[in-house]
Amino acid sequence: MSSTRTGTRGETVPTVPSAEPAATPAGSADVPALLERGRTLATPVLRAAVDRLAPPMDTVAAYHFGWIDAEGRPSDGDGGKAVRPALALLSAEVTGAPPETGVPGAVAVELVHNFSLLHDDLMDGDEQRRHRDTVWKVHGPAQAILVGDALFALANEVLLELGTVEAGRAARRLTAATRGLIDGQAQDISYEHRERVTVEECLEMEGNKTGALLACAASIGALLGGADDRTADVLERYGYHLGLAFQAVDDLLGIWGDPEATGKQTWSDLRQRKKSLPVVAALAAGGPASERLGELLAEDAKSSDFENFSEEEFAARAALIEEAGGREWTAQEARRQHTTAVESLDEIDMPAQVRAQFVALADFVVVRKR
Question: What is the CATH number of domain 21-366?
């Protein structure tokens, strides 16, 4: 297991071992190619679905996805990492089906994911996403809510209009994942108003908020390809633990990430008083730094001037989190969850190349800057 860097903001976090050479046929684990395949196959179907929305929701959604700018001109905006579509297409190949079989699942998962982003940005007061003003900032809160609701409805429509038994099974799992995602967001909001949250509570929240939908993405293509429930369950377990690893890295980037890479403010999660894993782990660690951090955060919760804190004040809190061990613990947790995700793949048969690609995607999720 390789080490984790703990230096200045903007560094890559955390490192993990690559797949064993024997499990990785040459040229089979090209992650950029997997991500691009997901975008190439899913985007036309995604755009066609969004085009069904009534005006102005179609335009607002197109802005959110980066297809147009705030004035309605065509744009080459950053559409995100595209991990979920890549997983959906790859999971179809577990069953021997072509990746195209997973396209409706990839689109449905992307629609649900973006429904959650639209609502999360509004609830969290985030003004920037993917280096642009968020939808609620440009088009207003009402449009952010309505377009989010519309994307959720479209997700089920895209699946159910296939009219197959496999699509019905996929839709049931997507609905359950969406309910888990909403539960996680509710937990996240409630934790912001509590002085202390346990590590177990934080992991449960993040498993709901991030793990549930990645679990669905990792299995939905296989379901559309006719996989049995056992195969889908194993792929969901891979995706769930991958989601926990993904969120642990997000939590690190939410405090120490480079704004140029993340598209968010410096010390973003600290500004929002988020009880993310580094904060919760630091508070649970004990010792002088942990105690001082607890005192400061308790004072912050009562402060009427919190929004005007200086960079130095947020930097001081981040330093205490690191001194108390919260940063290192979270990096280790990302590696633990990564290992659990990868090991789960051994429970089912799949082509060696497909397994290598699942492993490569897991490595990509845990080693990134945004």
Answer: 1.10.600.10
